[in-house]
Specification:
By secondary structure, this protein is an alpha/beta fold. Helices cover 13% and strands 13% of the residues. Keywords: Cytoplasm, Leucine-rich repeat, Muscle protein, Repeat.
Length: 298
C-alpha cells in the first residue's frame, strides 16, 4: 500500500514540476482549469517557488504546510472553492501579494498580520466576509485592499488604521454609513463604495487630502454635502443612481470634445449640485449624526 502511495506522490510531483515556469527571473507554479482539489505534500520538494498562480482548479483548501514556502512573494489562488485561510499563512514574511478573490472564505485569521511584507490583499467576491481582525492594521506596507462583494456593514477599524493604504474597494457590501474616523486614511487616493446603502457622508471626508477618485454610485445618498467643495485633489467622482433631492442640469459645454468627456454625475455635477443647494436655501453640511436626525427638507 505504501509503495502505491509513494508512486502516486512521484507521479504528482512530476506533474507539478511540469507546471513550473520562470518569468522575469521568478520561479512560478502555474496551473489553470485542471482538477487539483488538494495539493500533495510532495509539493514541499519545490520549496524554491516564489509565486503560485492556481486558478479554477477546484482547490478546497490551502495546505497546512504553506508556511514552509519561505520564498513565496505572490500567492494567487483566486477562483477556487477555498473556505479558510490557515494560520500558517503568517509564516510567509516575504509575501507581497495575496489574491484569494472568488472563493468561499468566511473569516480571516489574525496571523495574516504577521505577513510583514504584504502590499496587496484581495478578498473580493467571497460573499460572506463581514469583519477583519484588528491586528491587520499592523500590515505597515499594505497599499492595495479589495474587499468588494462581501457582507461588510461598516469599514472595519483594522482598515481605517492601515497606515500605508492607498487603494480600497468596498463596493457591493452592506455599508450604511461611513465612520467619522475615515479621515485616518490619509494616504488613500482611490475609494470605491459603489452598490452599498450609504445614506450620508461624514464631514471628516473633506479632510482626506490625497483622495482623487471617489465612487459612490448606486447608494442611498439624498444630498451632496457642502464640505466636499474643499476636496481640491478630487479628479473623479461618481454620484450616479442615488436618490438625490435636487435635480441638477449641467450648463452646456463650450465645445463638443469637452461635452463628450464630461462625466454626467462627476466632479462638475458635484460642484453644480452644491451651488444649487445653496441657491435653494437648502444648504446641507456634511452629516456628523445619524441619517435619521437629518430633517426631510435638508
Amino acid at each position: 500500500m505504501w509503495l502505491v502511495r509513494i508512486w502516486e506522490e512521484r507521479v504528482c510531483l512530476t506533474k507539478l514540476r511540469e507546471k513550473v515556469t520562470k518569468e522575469d527571473g521568478r520561479v512560478i507554479l502555474k496551473i489553470e482549469k485542471e482538477e487539483w482539489k488538494t495539493l500533495p505534500s510532495s509539493l514541499l520538494k519545490l520549496n524554491q517557488l516564489q509565486e503560485w498562480q492556481l486558478h479554477r482548479i477546484g482547490l478546497l483548501k490551502i495546505p497546512e504546510f504553506i508556511g514552509r514556502f519561505q520564498n513565496l512573494i505572490v500567492l494567487d489562488l483566486s477562483r477556487n472553492t477555498i473556505t479558510e485561510i490557515p494560520r500558517g499563512i503568517g509564516l510567509l514574511t516575504r509575501l507581497q501579494e495575496l489574491i484569494l478573490s472568488y472563493n468561499r472564505i468566511k473569516t480571516v485569521p489574525m496571523e495574516l498580520s504577521y505577513c510583514a511584507s504584504l502590499e496587496k490583499l484581495e478578498l473580493a467576491v467571497n460573499r460572506d466576509i463581514s469583519d477583519l481582525p484588528q491586528e491587520l492594521s499592523n500590515l505597515l506596507k499594505l497599499t492595495h485592499l479589495d474587499l468588494s462583494m462581501n457582507l461588510f456593514t461598516t469599514i472595519p477599524p483594522a482598515v481605517l488604521n492601515m497606515p500605508a493604504l492607498e487603494w480600497l474597494d468596498m463596493g457591493s457590501n452592506r455599508l450604511e454609513q461611513l465612520p467619522d474616523t475615515i479621515e485616518r486614511m490619509q494616504n488613500l487616493h482611490t475609494l470605491w463604495l459603489q452598490r452599498n446603502e450609504i445614506t450620508c457622508l461624514p464631514e471628516t471626508i473633506s479632510s482626506m487630502k490625497n483622495l482623487s477618485t471617489l465612487v459612490l454610485s448606486n447608494n442611498k445618498l439624498q444630498d451632496i454635502p457642502v464640505c466636499m467643495e474643499k476636496m481640491t485633489n478630487l479628479r473623479f467622482v461618481n454620484f450616479r443612481d442615488n436618490p438625490l433631492k435636487l435635480e441638477v442640469t449641467l450648463p452646456p459645454s463650450e465645445n463638443i470634445e469637452e461635452e463628450e468627456e464630461r462625466e454626467l454625475f462627476g466632479l462638475q455635477f458635484m460642484h453644480t449640485y452644491i451651488q444649487e443647494s445653496r441657491r435653494a436655501g437648502n444648504q446641507v453640511n456634511c452629516s456628523t449624526t445619524s441619517p435619521n436626525s437629518i430633517d426631510a427638507d435638508g
